[in-house]
Amino acid sequence: MSMVSARELASLVVESLNLEGVNAEQIDLAAPLFGDGLGLDSLDMLEISLVIQQRYGVKLKADDPQNEAIFSSLQSLAAHIGAVQAARS
How far apart are CA 45 and CA 48, in angstroms? Predict the structure, then answer.
């Protein structure tokens, strides 16, 4: 299983959330996903969690105290998915 890249997640987010006029190649991978960055909300987070579970088999729980850190940027999200996958293998 290959490591998930933050750029790959950018494409996944744009695709799954149907973000109009957003180019996945131009998203700042270190930018916040919520608020000033991509401006996503909790519903978007739920959607992203479902897609990640389907695509990578990594379950993200809504009540995880680490969520703020995990979802802080595409880079941190990619690192988390990679860590969970590595722990399994």
Answer: 5
Measured CA to CA, the distance from residue 8 to residue 68 in angstroms comes to: 20
* 27-79 residue pLDDT tens: 999 999 988 888 899 899 999 999 999 999 999 988 889 999 999 999 999 99
Q: What pTM value is reported for the model?
A: 0.89
Query: Which residue segments constitute the domains of the chain, with CATH numbers given?
Result: 6-88 (1.10.1200.10)
From 77, 84, 85, 64, select the one nearest 34 (Cα to Cα).
77
